[in-house]
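Practice problem 4.
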């Protein structure tokens, strides 16, 4: 097997001529400084898709949440977060039982929407999730008290806090707690401003006030 792979590699490199001069590499996707970055490539790929644009592009990326939350959302809507069902498929663990409720398999939908802790959390916020899926998280019906312009940011922050709470339960031996989860969302609305660009933070501040009001203590 190794000999065959080596033979194939030698055939591919047989006509490659090494030179002493520095490489001269260019790309139409490179920035003005010549650096090739992932952002423009991803945008180009989205534009090259079928006539219908990527359904979650605006929800995930045209959003005022911090970059780490948007990246988490990008994984979430594709069902690729490192929940226990995904870890089981990779044979990293042997049991997919949810760490929060100990009742069902910890899939992305279960963990973020349908676990007992998660469903109580969403109910407290006035958002119905009974038949919802993380693959279409943006379709959750907006309560009238949440401003339209901040709703997607709010949804991402809510999902992010559930994910962080799950990590606290798994890695810091904390007990699942709706009270703690709501308190974490309140605290998370303040660092959210400092993580964003100054202009974005200015746009976000009114939304933060709504988040604090909506997430009133139980």
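Answer key:
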């Amino acid at each position: 097997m190794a000999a065959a792979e080596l033979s194939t590699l030698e055939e591919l490199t047989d006509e490659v001529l090494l030179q002493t001069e520095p490489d001269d590499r260019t790309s139409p996707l490179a920035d003005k400084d010549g650096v090739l970055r992932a952002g423009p490539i991803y945008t180009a790929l989205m534009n090259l898709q079928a006539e219908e644009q990527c359904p979650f592009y605006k929800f995930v990326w045209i959003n005022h949440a911090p970059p780490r939350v948007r990246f988490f959302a990008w994984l979430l809507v594709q069902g690729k977060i490192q929940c226990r069902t995904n870890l089981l498929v990779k044979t990293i663990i042997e049991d997919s039982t949810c760490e929060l409720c100990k009742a069902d398999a910890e899939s992305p939908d279960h963990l973020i929407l349908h676990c007992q802790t998660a469903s109580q959390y969403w109910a407290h916020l006035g958002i119905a999730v009974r038949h919802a899926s993380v693959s279409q998280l943006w379709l959750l019906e907006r309560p009238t008290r949440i401003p339209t312009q901040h709703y997607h940011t709010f949804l991402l922050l809510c999902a992010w806090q559930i994910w962080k709470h799950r990590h606290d339960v798994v890695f810091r031996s904390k007990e699942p707690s709706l009270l703690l989860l709501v308190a974490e969302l309140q605290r998370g609305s303040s660092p959210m401003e400092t993580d964003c660009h100054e202009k974005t933070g200015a746009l976000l501040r009114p939304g933060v006030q709504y988040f604090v009001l909506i997430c009133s203590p139980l």
